[in-house]
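Figure 2 data, in text form.
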Amino acid sequence: MFTGLIREMAKVVSFKNNFLTLHAKYTPKIGDSIAVNGACLTVVKFTSDTFTVELSPESQNILAMENYKNEVHIEPAMMMGDRFEGHIVQGHVDCLGTISSIKNNGNSTDFFVTLPSTYSKFIIPKGSVTIDGVSLTVNDVKDDTFRLTIIPHTIKNTLFNRYKVGTKVNLETDMFARYVYNMFKKDNDKKLSWNEVDKIMANY
């Protein structure tokens, strides 16, 4: 389990034969889980200043591999007793999102992200979403697009400073949104509105 708070920007040393080697201050152990751009991967080798994770062909088909170069976000898995920040992140990328628009507001920047309609029902206004491993709050939702407002600190210290219109990103929807939806979805799989969910929850 992760929190969506990036602990370090690691430098990509190489990516060969499904093995991604990173240079980082953080030193993991063999078998450790670490989120790299939001995807939970297993450490298979390490040196004094690098570690290597393996990406299966399935992972490579799901992930935005174009972002696994130069620098990547890393976050080690939480340990029992760690301070909990961000939100609960599993490191299981649901789908790719696409940056569709970027608007500078002076002291913040709005990023608009589109995603496959299959997953749009899990994006909730003022809910949580993970973009390339970064825990963020959703401001607005419209059909298959949602808006994020990113502060300068986040842009400066993450891959958001490189994102452009058309950039693909790893996207993990909120775990609780998925659970609630599946608990209360109708038998005919008709989309259940969040107003209906609120009415159902009010009965308990």
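Caption note: Residues 123 and 147 are 10 Å apart (CA to CA).
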